[in-house]
Structure to design on (221 residues):
């Protein structure tokens, strides 16, 4: 089976930094994705890692360690609009497997 | 404007009725996917199709059916055999060979009364 774990909910303060972790155990691996999803809306793509290391894109960074089955999404300079769910997904051949998502609450 | 459209955004049906959710894309993508999302949950794969006239079951295909007669269209039928059909349904597509790029439609929220 495919297993992807992330914390259910996190709270952080506007302007701060938050790290959302994701661990995975899958039968194959072709990449790890992070999506942002606001309530009632479709997920939007944030980042993609296929090799170990850090990928930086503006206020968002994502890290991958394939040997540890571990990834994190780092959000800097948090803004109120960052309040959303963040989904970790693993691509296994041509199928995506999603975690349950981490609901991030940003407070003033 | 290129993208994926799903209609309607909200759909209500009586228990025991089949219902078909539409998904159309003009991105010229070969692969298309249907996901189901329940409150507080991630996305679960129902069906996917890599090319026209071919599709495969995902992890929760029971009670659902699909067709792929045209590259642009991948409709999903929720049959009366699906025990808990109320959910948020998302359609997605990717170009073949570029699965690092998955685009989602806006979703259809189905409520079965």
């Amino acid at each position: 089976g495919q297993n992807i774990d992330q914390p259910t909910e996190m709270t952080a303060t506007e302007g701060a930094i938050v790290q959302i972790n994701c661990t995975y155990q899958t039968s194959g691996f072709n990449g790890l994705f992070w999506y942002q999803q606001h309530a009632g809306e479709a997920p939007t793509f944030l980042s993609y890692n296929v090799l170990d290391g850090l990928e930086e894109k503006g206020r968002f960074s994502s890290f991958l360690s394939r040997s540890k089955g571990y990834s994190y999404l780092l959000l800097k300079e948090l803004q109120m609009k960052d309040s959303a769910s963040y989904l970790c997904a693993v691509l296994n051949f041509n199928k995506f497997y999603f975690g349950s998502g981490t609901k991030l609450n940003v407070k003033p | 404007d290129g993208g994926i459209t799903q209609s309607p955004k909200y759909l209500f049906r009586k228990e025991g009725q089949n219902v078909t959710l539409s998904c159309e894309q003009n991105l010229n993508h070969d692969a298309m996917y249907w996901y189901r999302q329940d409150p507080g949950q991630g996305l679960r794969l129902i069906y996917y199709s890599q090319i026209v006239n071919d599709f495969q079951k995902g992890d929760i295909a029971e009670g659902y059916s699909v067709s792929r007669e045209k590259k642009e269209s991948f409709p999903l039928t929720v049959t009366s055999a699906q025990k808990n059909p109320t959910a948020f349904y998302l359609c997605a597509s990717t170009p073949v060979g570029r699965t690092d790029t998955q685009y989602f439609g806006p979703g259809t929220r189905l409520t079965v009364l």
DSSP finds no helices and eleven strands in chain B. The two ends of chain B are 35 Å apart (CA to CA). Chain B touches chain A at residues 31, 33, 35, 40-45, 48, 50, 58, 88, 90, 99-102, 104-107, 109 (CB under 8 Å).
